[in-house]
Write a structure and sequence with these properties.
globular, UCP028200, DUF6279 family lipoprotein, lipoprotein
Length: 293
């Protein structure tokens, strides 16, 4: 998720599933989702009263749709994932992982597409001062990204990658053993460092956004904005797309290796964690969507 630009937050970033991983109650998150999203957006732009009214209405529409239409899909996704991970005789394959990745991408695109129905009108109404404020915040975030990831030397990057795997294993499997730590280390040392590529993409994305804003108002504003959000790969060269695809394949390879290495206790812990989130999502989508807001 490190290459997702801050602008996606502004057009109602679907944070819900991510928030669920840090919260035991989906209802708790959904009842406060409008606050979470408004708080995140406020980091980038201060809306005037009319813009805030339009944004609040768009946000309510998106949350209602997301709860009723998308949460059931999330529940099915997690049930299918749990079913694959619970099979003792068969470990997860690259094809299966790729399929889950594609389904997650489709859910993301659906949420973003829905958000893009109403928010371009709000974005087109931004004053030059508001646009400048937003671009300044993007620049600040990009500088932070560069410092935190791009400026790392090989040893620092290796340490960061291993720490992330260790944290994820402790979160989902309850622990990490020496063999799994070694798998993480081998992956960290052999994987392509794509943070520079991601940083360049962020800069290109920011510049394209500024170009779109600079031409307001114009007939293709919504079309160009939607393309920027829904097809960011157009900013990449063929070689860059290949590097990203290879990096994703390498990450899937690590996931497969870790899956094969799980002890019985770790697998049970993982399935319990997934099951609790799945139950919470199912309960919310079938009973509480109408009252969640």
């Amino acid at each position: 998720m490190s290459d997702i630009t801050a602008m996606r937050t502004l057009i109602i970033l679907p944070l819900i599933l991510l928030l669920l991983t840090a919260c035991s109650s989906a209802s708790f998150v959904y009842k406060r989702a409008d606050w979470f999203i408004n708080w995140a957006v406020d980091d980038y732009i201060s809306f005037d009263r009319e813009q805030q009214t339009l944004f609040d209405a768009a946000l309510e529409d998106w949350l209602d749709w997301h709860c009723s239409a998308e949460l059931p899909r999330y529940g099915e996704y997690l049930q299918d994932l749990s079913a694959v991970l619970s099979k003792d005789e068969l470990r997860i394959s690259d094809t299966s992982l790729l399929g889950f990745s594609e389904r997650a991408s489709e859910a993301w695109t659906a949420s973003l597409s829905r958000a893009l129905i109403k928010t371009p009108k709000i974005l087109e109404s931004l004053s030059d001062e508001q646009v400048a404020q937003f671009l300044e915040e993007l620049d600040s975030r990009n500088k932070h990204f560069q410092k935190e990831y791009v400026a790392l030397n090989a040893t620092e990057l290796e340490k960061l990658r291993v720490e992330r795997v260790r944290d994820a294993m402790k979160r989902w499997a309850g622990s990490i053993d020496d063999g799994q730590q070694q798998l993480a280390l081998e992956w960290a040392r052999s994987s392509d460092n794509i943070y520079g590529l991601i940083f360049t993409r962020r800069l290109h994305w920011r510049d394209r956004l500024q170009e779109i804003f600079s031409k307001r108002p114009y007939d293709n504003f919504k079309v160009d904005l939607s393309e920027l959000f829904l097809r960011p790969e157009l900013l990449l060269t063929e070689d860059e797309r290949g590097r990203l695809a290879a990096s994703q394949q390498s990450a899937r390879g690590l996931l497969q290796a870790l899956d094969r290495s799980l002890s019985k206790r770790q697998r049970e812990h993982l399935l319990v964690e997934l099951g609790e989130i799945t139950d919470d999502i199912t309960r919310l989508s079938t009973r509480d969507c109408g009252s969640a807001q």
